[in-house]
Amino acid sequence: MRILSSEMKPLVSLDQHEAAQLGNQLFRFASELYPICRSISGDGLRRTLRLIGEHIPITISEVPSGTVVFDWTVPKEWNIRDAYIKSPSGERIVDFHKSNLHVVNYSTPVRAVMSKEELQPHLHSLPDYPDWIPYRTSYYKEDWGFCLSHNQLLTLKEGNYDVCIDSTLADGHLSLGESYFPGRTSDEILISCHACHPSLANDNLSGLTVAVHLAQLVEKLRSDHHFSYRFLFIPGTIGAITWLARNRETASQIRHGIVLTCIGDKGNFHYKKSRRGNADIDCAVAHVLSHTPGSPEILDFFPYGYDERQYCSPGFNLPVGCLMRSVWGTFPEYHTSADNLDFIAPLKLAESLGVCAAVFDVLENNTRYRNLQPFCEPQLGRRGLYRSAGVNSMPDEINARLWVLNQSDGQHTLLDIAERAGLPFATIREAADLLAASELLEVVSENPARDGASQAARNE
Amino acid sequence: MRILSSEMKPLVSLDQHEAAQLGNQLFRFASELYPICRSISGDGLRRTLRLIGEHIPITISEVPSGTVVFDWTVPKEWNIRDAYIKSPSGERIVDFHKSNLHVVNYSTPVRAVMSKEELQPHLHSLPDYPDWIPYRTSYYKEDWGFCLSHNQLLTLKEGNYDVCIDSTLADGHLSLGESYFPGRTSDEILISCHACHPSLANDNLSGLTVAVHLAQLVEKLRSDHHFSYRFLFIPGTIGAITWLARNRETASQIRHGIVLTCIGDKGNFHYKKSRRGNADIDCAVAHVLSHTPGSPEILDFFPYGYDERQYCSPGFNLPVGCLMRSVWGTFPEYHTSADNLDFIAPLKLAESLGVCAAVFDVLENNTRYRNLQPFCEPQLGRRGLYRSAGVNSMPDEINARLWVLNQSDGQHTLLDIAERAGLPFATIREAADLLAASELLEVVSENPARDGASQAARNE
Amino acid sequence: MRILSSEMKPLVSLDQHEAAQLGNQLFRFASELYPICRSISGDGLRRTLRLIGEHIPITISEVPSGTVVFDWTVPKEWNIRDAYIKSPSGERIVDFHKSNLHVVNYSTPVRAVMSKEELQPHLHSLPDYPDWIPYRTSYYKEDWGFCLSHNQLLTLKEGNYDVCIDSTLADGHLSLGESYFPGRTSDEILISCHACHPSLANDNLSGLTVAVHLAQLVEKLRSDHHFSYRFLFIPGTIGAITWLARNRETASQIRHGIVLTCIGDKGNFHYKKSRRGNADIDCAVAHVLSHTPGSPEILDFFPYGYDERQYCSPGFNLPVGCLMRSVWGTFPEYHTSADNLDFIAPLKLAESLGVCAAVFDVLENNTRYRNLQPFCEPQLGRRGLYRSAGVNSMPDEINARLWVLNQSDGQHTLLDIAERAGLPFATIREAADLLAASELLEVVSENPARDGASQAARNE
Question: What is the ipTM of this complex?
C-alpha cells in the first residue's frame, strides 16, 4: 500500500503550521457534535451518525429492542426532549437545555412536585469538584435522577420542587454506525469507537473525530490498500456486543484492531495491549509510540475498560488494543462537565491522527524481503547508496540500508528490522524501497500478518 | 479441596489476637522439644519422634547401621548419657546437662585425665561471639570434643582436667518419622524437615513445629483433599538419602514438595526454588509470598543447603523447594547456643504456618475453568455480580470476576490468572467459586498439576 | 584439549611481572610492523605477511586484479615509493617518509606544480585535533590527496607547490594471509583480523599481534586440540569478501569465530555479538568477560563495523563476533596519527591475549558430563573432596563440585553450569576434572558445539 503510505506520511511529519490547520479541522468537527445529547440508543445517537455520514459513507443498522445478543438483550430506546427542576419560587434551577449532563442518562419520565427531602436521593454531585456536574447513567435499572454541581446542591432550600423529565423509554431500536472500505484482501483492520456519550469531549468525541478523519484518508485511496478497513461508531458495551453477535463471520476476518478513546487531551499516549499481548497491532503501536515524542506508556491488557473488553473476550480473543492519551477514569475531569471542549486540544487531535496513520503504514507495509546478494555485502558504493568516503559517522538512512540487507533473509519483516535497528519504521521502509528499486531485494511475503488462530495457539 | 481451603483460609486472615494464640501453641511445642539432645541417630531423635506422635499419627522406621543407601552407608547409632570437663579443682566446668551443645555431636566415648595442652585441640569456641557455645558435629570421622564459650575457654588454667564423655557409638538404627494422609489421588505433596539438631530452636524446631501443625490441619480434612500429604521428620542428609533409597517408587508420586527450616525467627521470608526453577511449587510459593507483608525474597536453586539437595539431585530432580525466614548460615546465631527459644517468636511461627497453608490452598485449588459465556462479557449486573451504577472505581472482587471470565478459556489455571491480575489467589478463587455457582464457569481440570516428567523435559 | 587448557591457563593467571614480559614481547612485534605503509594490496601488505611468517607458518594467496568476488571486483594493486609537497621555497613540507598517513591511501600518481588554490581541495586535516594527521583512503574512486595536521595547513602560504606522488595503480594482486592448524576434527575456529591499515597501532596492529601470538600457542599443541584453527590476516572488507568467495566450503566448517581489532588500548573490553546473538562464541566471550576486571560491555550485533559484517551477512550467518577494547570510531584517536604506539600498552595486549586464550579454553572444553551417582549426592567426604568438618562457609572449589554433580544430567555443558553457578569456567572445569578422576562423572559429549545450521534455525 505505497499510496496509503505516501498519503499517510505527511501526517507524521507535519510542520507546526500544517498540524495546527489539521487540528483545527478536527476540533471543528468535535465542536459540531458536542451539544448533542447522545445515549446508547435514541435520536441523539442517530443524529450523530448522520452527521458522520456527511463526511464518510456510513451504514446505520437499527436493531430492535428485545433482540437477544449473547447473554444480553437490546434495551428499550430512550429519548428525551426536556428536563428541569423548578425551585419553590418557580425558577428553572436545573435545566437540561443548559447541559444534557443534568439528567441521569436513561432516566424514566417524571412529572411531580416533591419536597427537598423526597428529591434529594435523586440528586448527584461531586463534593470534591464542587463546580462540576457529574455524568451518570442507569441503562439497565429503571430509575431517574439529576446531576448538578455540588455548590448548587448546597444552595437548595426547603420547599416544594417542580420536577420534570420529559423522556420516553419504549420499544425502539439500537443504532449501529459502520463504514467499510474494501481493500485488496478481505483481511480487516477494525477501528472502533463508542458514540454514546453526551456532551463529553475527550470521552469520546475525540475518538469519533479521529476515526472519521482516518476513514476519509482511507477512502481517498480508492481500495488501493492491502487490508479492508472497518470503522464502527457504536454505543459502548451493548453496541459492541450487538455488533459481534450479528457479525461473527465478519469478526473472524479481523487481523488487527484498535479502540480509540480519550485521544484529544494533553496527556501522554497510553496503549493498552490486546489480550494476546504480542499481536501485530500491539507491536506496531508500541513501535510507533516509541518514536513519538513524550513518554508514551504501554499497558498490559486488563479485562475492564471500553469495547476492547468484548473484542478480547475469550470466545473472540481478537487482536484489538486500545489507544488513549490520558487513561479513562484516571483524570478528575473524566465523566464530568469538565470534560468539555477546553479539555481537548486541536494539536493533540492531529497528533493522535498521525499516530494512527503511522500504525496503518506499519501494518500495510510490513513486508518480508529476501536479500538477492546475501553472500557478503553488496557494493553499495558503486550504486550511489553508500556514504561519502572519509565520513566516519553513519547516517540513519545508510544504517537502515545495511540493516535491511543484513536481516532480509526471508524471515524478518520490516517491523522486526526496525525494532532491531532502533530506527523508525518509515526509515526502514524507505531503505527497503530504494534497495528493491536497485534489485537488491525481492518480496517474500507482501503482508505477512500473523494468522489470528495460529497466533492464539502460540500464546496459550 | 474446598474444605481444606476453608480450613486454611482463617490462618491467612487471622486477627492479631488469634495469631498470638496460635503462635503460643506452636511455641509451646517447640519449647517442649528444645531440651532434648538429638542427633542423626539415637534415643534423642526417637524421643522427639514419639513426642510428635502424640499430636499426629506417625510411623517410625528403624534402618540398621551398615545399610547401604546409594553412595552412603547408614552409620553407627550414637547415644549419650553424660559428659563433662572437671577443673583441676574438681569442679564440673563444662557440663552436658547444662547444654547439650557442649559435646561435639557423635563424640566417641572418653574417660581420661589430661593436661590443658592435651585437652586444647578438642575444645571449640567462637572468638567473635565470646558468650556463645558453638554447635559442632563429627558424624563420619570418629573424634570427640567439647564446645564452650570463648570467654570460658580463656579462663582455663594450667593443670590436669578430668574429661568424660559417656557416649556409645555402636551398631543400631537410624530412625525415620513419617506421617501420611491419603487424599483423593495418590499424587503427593511432600513436607520435609530435619529433626537431628539438638537444642537449636530456629534450626530446626521451627520447621518441625510448623510441619506438625500443618499435618494436624490436613488430618482434620479426613481425606477430603486432592493430594496425598507426606510429612517427613528425618535426620538431615543421611535421613533424606535413606528415605529416598528405600522409597524410589513413592518418590515418583511427589508432585510438589517443600523443605521447612529456620522459619521461626524475625527475618523476612526466603524461598529457594527447586532445581527446576519453574515448578508449580516454585510458582505457588512465589505467589503467596508476593502477597505477604515484608520483603520476601525468592532465591534461585543452588546445590548446597538442606535436604532439597537430595530431592533435587539430578536422578530425582523432584519439584522440591525450601522455605526459610532468615537463610541458614547467614545469621550469626546459626549453629550456636544463641539459636535458642528467644531467637524464635510465636507470631513468626504462626505467620509461617499461614504461608504454608496458603500454598496448599493454591496447590489444591489451582483449577482450570472454561467460561460458558465466552463470547463478549456475560451480563454480571442482572446476576448481582457487578459494581453499583455510578461507581467508577473497580473493587478487587469485581476485578477478579472479570479476570476469571476473561482468562478462563480452558488454558489458564487460577494461579495463572491471579498472577496476571496481580491479585491474591484467594480473591481469584472466591471469584471463581461465585461464577461457577452462577453457572458461568465449568471445570476443565480439577487439578492440573504439571507432570514431573514433562516439566523436567520442558526445562532442559 | 587438556593441553591447550594447561597451556592457556597461565595466560589468564599471569602475575604482574610475567604479564609485563609477555606484553613487552607483543609490543615489540607491533613496533616492528608499525612503520610499514600497508594498504588493501601491494608490497606493504606483502611485507607484513612475510614478517608474520617469521613467527608462524603462513600461506599467502595472490588473487589477480579483476577477479569477481560476489558483488565486488578485486581492484588494481597499489604501490607507493615516495610522495611529498615542496613549498614555494623548495622545502619538503609534507613528506611520505615522515609519516605514511600523509598520502591518501590508494592515491593515483601525481607530478605537478600547482598553486595553493589548486592544491587545497586535495588536502585533508582535522580542525578539531589540529596536531594530528588524519588517515584517508580512496580505494574505489580514483583520486589523490595529502593529509596533514591542521596547524600545518594553516601555515601554507600563497605560491606554487611542487607536488609528487610516486605511486602505481595497476593490475596486480590482492594478498591474503592464512595460517591453519588442524585439530582432531575439521570443525574450525576462525580468528580474523584486517592487515591493511598503515601506521596505526590500535587499528589494527593490536589485532595482528594478538592473533599471531595466539597462533603460536595453538601451534605448540601439535594438533592435540578438538577444533582446527584458522587465522586470517587480510585486507578489510575486500579481503574478507574475497576469502569467503574462494572458500565457501571451508566457511561451512566454521563453528566459532572472532574478529580482533582495537585490542591494545587502555579502554574496557567490548564484545559485539554475532548476528545470531546467542551463538556459543557469544556465550563464551560474554562468560569470560564477566569474570574479567573492568567493566566489559557486550554489544548487540549491528551490520556495520569490521569484517564480522561479511561473515554475518545473511547468506553465511556465521557465528562470528568482534572483540575490541575501545570501539572503533568512538575514540578521537581513531584513524589519525594519534593511534600510534603510545596509544597501545604492553599490558593491555597481554590481557587481550589472555581473554582470547580463556575463550578458546571454554570452547575446547565445554564438555557435557553425566553424573554416575545421580540419586542423591555422592559422599564426597570419604573421597577427600568435601570441606573440613565445622566449616560453615563454602569455598568456590567445593561449590563448583556440587554444581557440576547437580547439573551433570547429560544436558548441561560446563559453560551452562559455570553460568548458573556464577563461577569462572576454569573453576568449573577443574571441579569436573577432579570428579571425573574419581569416577563420579562420565563424558556424554566431548564437544557439543551447537551446529551452525540448527542454531540458525532456532534463532529465526
Answer: 0.93
